[in-house]
Amino acid sequence: MPYFGFEDCDGTPVLKVPATIHGHIEMASRSQISSNPILVLHFVLTTLDPAGSPAAAMQHKLRPYRPNDALQFHEIIFDIGTDAKADRHVESMKALVDCLKHLEYERVEIFIYTHSETDRGDIWGGFEDDEFVGKGKSRLIIPGDPVAYPVDDFFAGLFVGGIEDYVRGATLWMLICGHTIRVPDSFQLLKTCVKQYQAEHAFAFGATSLHACLSIPLVTIYVRRVLVEGFEVQEVISDLLKACPRFAVHSSIIHMHNPTAFRRRQPTMMEYHQGVKHVPTATTSMTISTYTFFQDFTRPFGNNLPYQCSNCMCVRSWKHIVSRPPSAPNQSSFICQNESCGHTLTYTKPEGSDIILYSQSQKGRYAPASGWLMSVTVEPCTPARV
Predict the structure, then answer these.
(1) Which residues pair with 126 in a beta bridge?
(2) Over the stretch 234-270, which tens digit does the pLDDT of each residue have?
(3) Other C-beta atoms lying within 10 Å of the C-beta of residue 379
(4) pLDDT of residue 367
(5) Whole-angstrom Cα distance, residue 90 to residue 63?
(6) Where are the extended beta strands (E) located within 128-170?
(7) Distance of alpha carbon 381 from alpha carbon 375, whole angstroms
(8) At what angle do helices 83-100 and 151-158 cross, to 10 degrees?
(9) Alpha-helical regions (H) of the chain
(10) Is-contact 53 44, C-beta < 8 A?
(11) How many angstroms from the chain centroid is the CA of residue 160?
(12) Among 7, 15, 67, 159, which residue's CB has the most CB atoms within a 10 Å radius?
């Protein structure tokens, strides 16, 4: 129907003729430009270089869309390895909260940049006190050993002094090595903390030696599609994945969505038009989605093809036999090209997983393809932390 632009209280057009719209479509019809206040908290272990984290890239990308008072970026260098250091951290967090409490934030993004312990998946919280040996010019400083805490104890020690209130409804970026994800007990503790601290979203990564700087393209697209244009993470996850092909080879991506979390932000455009209300129920579940990069010839179903044949020890000897033939659509097999060997490997697509395909050769029906393998699990949400 004609667009008049203005109506009175009875719904009658005020203008006698339809309004003329000047301009053209520049964005998706459901997108928007959001300029509401955002808080970015960057927690960095004392020995790490903050420049290696994507948090600074987030600040840089957000700055053109936010006035100075609408974007708060705080970098916290932490060390809670001893009781005395933990007490000082509490005081610093209290001072930070005093600075933050004068403004309401629609979005809170929290980056945690530290290490994880290789065997148990515990998270490094700091270091023991240094020791001093000798006197005078011959005096030596022996650095204190690292101190790692179980995930729940780490959260309890880091988020103190009132800063824990800002975790509610926030997005957590766990920039730690993937041992915390690979060890079942520590991963379960992480999921429990996401629920109990009421974080709405959490991202973690599976690489055993995570290079956080490689995640910058992922964070950059997240800024544009989620923080600026106002889409929900689940709506644009494919855009995030396609933006980081180099990071795809390096690490899997784990996304946790907690729908029972405290809601800081206004409804997204989709939620507004559909009339969606944020009303958590006792039966609401948290969704954990794991995205693993695959390539038919080098990473079949997300598995790293061995660089060397374990039978004859030849290097790069694999020949792809067939990829997902009609008789076995969920299998991919390889054979060693050494004539005296013939060792074979077969990989099977994980049960219940889906493929997000974004690159496929046009040469043939079973030509090599690459993309992301998506596995989804759900867990019941637990009561919030008191």
Answers:
(1) 147
(2) 889 989 998 888 898 899 999 999 987 777 766 655 5
(3) 15
(4) 56
(5) 29
(6) 131-133, 140-142, 146-149
(7) 19
(8) 50
(9) 55-62, 83-100, 151-158, 179-182, 184-196, 216-222, 237-242, 245-250, 269-274
(10) yes
(11) 23
(12) 159
% helix, strand, coil for the chain, step of 5: 30, 25, 45
Averaged pLDDT for residues 373-378: 90
DSSP string for residues in 168-198? TT-EEEEES-THHHHSHHHHHHHHHHHHHTT
- Tokens for 242, please give them: 């396609």
Q: Residue 279 has what pLDDT?
A: 47
Tell me how far apart the alpha carbons of residues 187 and 180 are, in angstroms, rounded to a whole number. Answer: 6
End-to-end alpha-carbon separation of the chain, Å? 53
Q: What pLDDT digit, counting tens, does each position of 3-55 carry?
A: 777 888 887 888 888 888 776 666 555 556 677 889 999 999 999 999 889 99
In the structure encoding, which two tokens stand for residue 156, read together?
A: 């309890």
What is the rounded distance in angstroms from the CA atom of residue 83 to the CA atom of residue 78?
13
Q: What is the tens place of the pLDDT at every residue in 97-130?
A: 999 988 888 899 999 999 999 999 999 999 998 8
**Per-residue model confidence as pLDDT tens digits over 265-321:** 666 555 555 554 444 444 568 999 999 998 888 888 888 888 888 898 989 888 888
Tokens 């599609």 identify what position? 225
Asked if 250 and 288 touch (Cβ cutoff 8 Å), the reply is no
Tokens for 222, please give them: 């997240």
pTM reported for the whole predicted model: 0.83
In this structure, which amino acid lies at residue 326?
Answer: P
